[in-house]
Amino acid sequence: xxxxxxxxxxxxxxxxxxxxxxxxxxxxxxxxxxxxxxxxxxxxxxxxxxxxxxxxxxxxxxxxxxxxxxxxxxxxxxxxxxxxxxxxxxxxxxxxxxxxxxxxxxxxxxxxxxxxxxxxxxxxxxxxxxxxxxxxxxxxxxxxxxxxxxxxxxxxxxxxxxxxxxxxxxxxxxxxxxxxxxxxxxxxxxxxxxxxxxxxxxxxxxxxxxxxxxxxxxxxxx
Length: 222
Ligand SMILES: Nc1ncnc2c1ncn2[C@@H]1O[C@H](COP(=O)(O)OP(=O)(O)OP(=O)(O)O)[C@@H](O)[C@H]1O
Ligand SMILES: [Mg+2]
Description:
Rossmann fold, 5 strands, 50% helix, 11% strand, binds adenosine-5'-triphosphate, binds magnesium ion
């Protein structure tokens, strides 16, 4: 490894992505003195496409679908070029959702096959995550958790419902079961998200250790 890792966290709404991201952040920061950069699946770097991102995500229609996909493509490309790639020589990057979530959204909301969405997005993403941690829990567990959060964490009526979350989950499985067709997803590992928070974090850290994705004790890269 000649740079720090690009780690992605995926999982259903409420499965514990933000919680795990914060835990990994503290481990890197406190144990090794390297402060990760956290990015989201959309980072709003291009004002030209901001309106298309909002419309396409919160009011998806057939009419705005292609504009949304083009906007995601522009945002992902800018995120890689301006945030992720420049950071990796200095610090790990942890993304809260990435390509897998976009493929699932287009399948579930638009009936668009992941291979078609992938064909539109992959060309713009010139970087493969070193590891994607997929938080796996029963749909009911993640939905209960999502609903139990305080105000300020949005729960969307057209998204945070059992049948939608169940098909998101099925789409994740179909995509990760066919890695050859989706090379920009990169390696994935499933983490049991029903465990206590500390055990989820320990499993994730172990997965990073096993793949040589943690710094040496002085905080430099291996
Ligand atoms: N392992 C766990 N055990 C019990 N509760 C948890 C666990 N992980 C997270 N939680 C709690 O569940 C709720 C949802 O967690 P979190 O916000 O991390 O999920 P998320 O995947 O980021 O959700 P979203 O996709 O909506 O952003 C929070 O209140 C969090 O404290
Ligand atoms: Mg979150």
